[in-house]
Amino acid sequence: AATLGLEFQRMQFTADLLPSDILGVSVYDQNDRGFRFHPGPVFTQLLLADEINRAPPRTQSALLEAMAEHQVSVDGVSHRLPAPFFVIATQNPVDLSGTFPLPDSQLDRFLLRLSMGYPDAEAERAMLAGRDRRLMINETLPRLAADDVLALQKAVDGVHASDALLDYVQRLLVESRRHAGVRVGLSPRAGLALLRGGRAHALLLGRAHVLPDDVQALFVAVAAHRLVTDVDGAGRDALAASILKAVAVD
Questions:
Q1: Looking at the domain assignment, is residue 186 inside a domain?
Q2: Along the 250 residues of the chain, how does pLDDT read in single tens digits?
Q3: pTM for the full model?
Q4: Which of 101, 118, 145 is the last residue of a domain?
Q5: Which residues are CB-neighbours of 78 under 8 A, at least 6 positions away?
Q6: Burial bucket for residue 44 (CB in 10 Å: 0-12, 13-18, 19+)
Q7: Of the residues 86, 111, 145, which one is the last residue of a structural domain?
Q8: What CATH number is given to the structural domain containing 46?
Q9: What are the angstrom distances between the C-alpha of 182 and each of 13, 44, 224, 226, 238?
Q10: What CATH number has the domain bearing residue 223?
Q11: Are residues 120 and 166 part of one domain?
Q12: How, if at all, do strands 182-184 and 86-89 pair?
C-alpha cells in the first residue's frame, strides 16, 4: 500500500466480527433528528482482510458487493467505494480449529490465489540477519499514486485479445466443467478473470496483445481456488494444472 501510494486499512477477521464492523452502520443523530451513516473500514483503496476464514460465512459475504460492484448497500442506500479499490486476504489452513471455509461465491470474487510457502534458505537468512521489517515498511516511499494505478488499470483494458485467444480461454472453461475430479467447473467470471490477468501479464511484459503464454502463466493461480472438488490446497493446484495440460493451443 505504501509503495502504491493508496489509502490502506487492515481488518483482523475473528469469529465474533459482524458485517456492520466491515461495512459501517447508520447511527441516529439527535441534532439532525435523523440517521447518519458512519463508513466502516471497507471505505478505503486497499483493504487487507487478515485471516478472513476465521469469520463466519455471513461476515465473509459482507465483502461480496464491495468486491464485485465497488459499492456497499446499508439500509437500502448504496455507497460508492473509493477508486481504485481492491481486497487482499490471508487465510489459515482449513484444517485448523476455529476456521470457516469461504463460500464458493466469495472465492469467485478473488482474481488470484497465491500460496506463499516458506522462504528459501537465502531469503530466510537475510530476514533473520536484517533490520526489523516493520521499520523498513515505515520508511517505504510511494512509487505510484492512485491516479497512476487507475491509468494502469485502463491500460490493461486496452490490451488486445484475439478471437483465437478467446477460443482458447473458452476451451479451458469447457474442459474444467467436464474434467475428471471436478464437481463444478469454472464460471464465466473465471473466464473474465483469466482474460484480465492475461492482459495485465502481457502489459507487464511490454506487449499490446495477449498470448496463450500469458493465460498459461496465471491459469493455476486464477482457476484452482474456483474449482469445486473433493480435494484442497495443492490437490486443487494439480487438478488445475491437469486441465491446462489437457487443452491444446491451436
A1: yes
A2: 788 989 999 999 999 999 999 999 888 888 877 888 899 999 999 999 999 999 988 888 889 999 999 999 988 889 999 999 999 999 887 666 778 888 888 888 999 999 888 889 999 998 898 888 778 888 888 889 999 999 999 999 999 999 999 999 999 999 999 998 899 999 999 999 999 999 999 999 999 999 999 999 999 999 999 998 877 767 889 999 999 999 999 8
A3: 0.85
A4: 145
A5: 71, 72
A6: buried
A7: 145
A8: 3.40.50.300
A9: 30, 37, 11, 11, 12
A10: 1.10.8.80
A11: no
A12: unpaired
Q: Are 239 and 223 in contact (CB under 8 A)?
A: no
Question: Has residue 153 been placed in a domain?
Answer: no
Task: Please report, as a single letter, which amino acid is at residue 164.
Answer: A
Tell me which residue has cell 490502506.
8
Residues 206, 134, single domain; the answer is no
1: how many CB neighbours lie within 10 A of its CB? Answer: 18
Instruction: Determine contact, residues 89/110, Cβ cutoff 8 Å.
Output: yes
Dist. CA 193–CA 113, nearest whole Å: 12
Domain annotation covers residue 152 = no
- The 8-class DSSP code of residue 160 comes to B
Q: How far is CA 85 from the centre of its chain?
A: 11
What's the chain's length in residues? 250
